[in-house]
Amino acid sequence: MKLGIVGSGKIVHDFLTTANKIDHLELTAISTTQRSRQIAQDLAQQYGIKKVFTNNAQLCNDPNVDTVYVAVPNSLHYEVVKQALEAGKNVICEKPYMATAAQAHELKQIADTHHVIIVEAITNIHLPNYKAIKRVLPKIGPVHIVSLNYTQYSSRYDNFLKGIIEPVFDPAKDGGTLKDLNIYNIHLAVGLFGKPDHVQYCPVMQQGIDTSGILNLTYADKQATLVAAKDCYATPRSFIEGEKGSIYFDGSTGVIDSFTVELRTGETKRVNLNKFDHRMASEFTDFVNIIDNHDVTTANELYNHSMTVMDVLANAVKSAQ
């Protein structure tokens, strides 16, 4: 994979710290705004990125780029992804996928027309620990209660309280805790249990944006409570509770460093199958394999998963209005 990166924000900095751990990944180019050009140049020098652009079109049309990683504010996803797809590039788009299902359908059609692949970058469903939890579920089931928690006091929250509104807290830029943190909980719940029958979001609203909130998902045989907060401090713990036992883990639902299986028989086992220390390495390893092998089947499965997550998001937003 010859990767071009659009964006130079926090997530790009984070990704670049682990990019050298990903086999068959070549950092070809980075594009950012003129204002952030020096940041991009510094990143290029530090991580061996070959070209720096301040024009996304130039990156998208570079013949040495075959895949574009879109890591810009949520509100810009659609236009940047569309530009890359129409240039015949594969696309890895940061979560959340798109603002609407209509946008996502349109972009998938463009990708199919150009015989390229589009995937959503979301860490947890690519982690070996997530896949292990999925395999273990029958041992504790039937599952009836799910409690997922991603609480992380935001480094930008203090500025928010002072009236300095950055994109993650800007409703005009598709910000908010639901789409920034609770999205991980939704991906996890949908991946493990499928589409819920009912969705209800109860947000904590400040200055027109949800700084924290509880999302309730109702299934025929279970209830799932998804908690996310950028305005609280806690060490979160998540539980999956069944008739034969439970699974629990501490920390971010986007990382799942390890998990514990506790059976009603008294047997307890701690599991960690993650291969990488960094949460983004597993997903990008998967993306390299999918794109380099043009694995349309797996890409379509991921697309369908992302569309289910988008449906949950849309219903959550609607329920809170």
Report what the structure shows:
This protein has eleven helices and 14 strands. The protein has two domains: 2-121 and 281-309, NAD(P)-binding Rossmann-like Domain (Rossmann fold); 125-274, Dihydrodipicolinate Reductase, domain 2 (2-Layer Sandwich), CATH 3.30.360.10. Helix 4 (77-86) packs parallel to helix 5 (101-113) and helix 9 packs across helix 11 (296-320). By secondary structure, the chain is α/β, with parallel strands linked by helices. Strand 5, helix 5 (101-113) and strand 6 form a beta-alpha-beta unit.
Which class of the largest domain in CATH terms?
Alpha Beta
Task: Examine the secondary-structure arrangement and name the CATH architecture of the largest domain.
Answer: 2-Layer Sandwich
Number of strands: 14
Q: Estimate the mean pLDDT confidence.
A: 97
Percent of residues in helices:
25-40%
Name some characteristics of this structure.
single chain, 321 residues, alpha/beta, Rossmann fold, Dihydrodipicolinate Reductase, domain 2, 2 domains, six-stranded parallel sheet, 11 helices
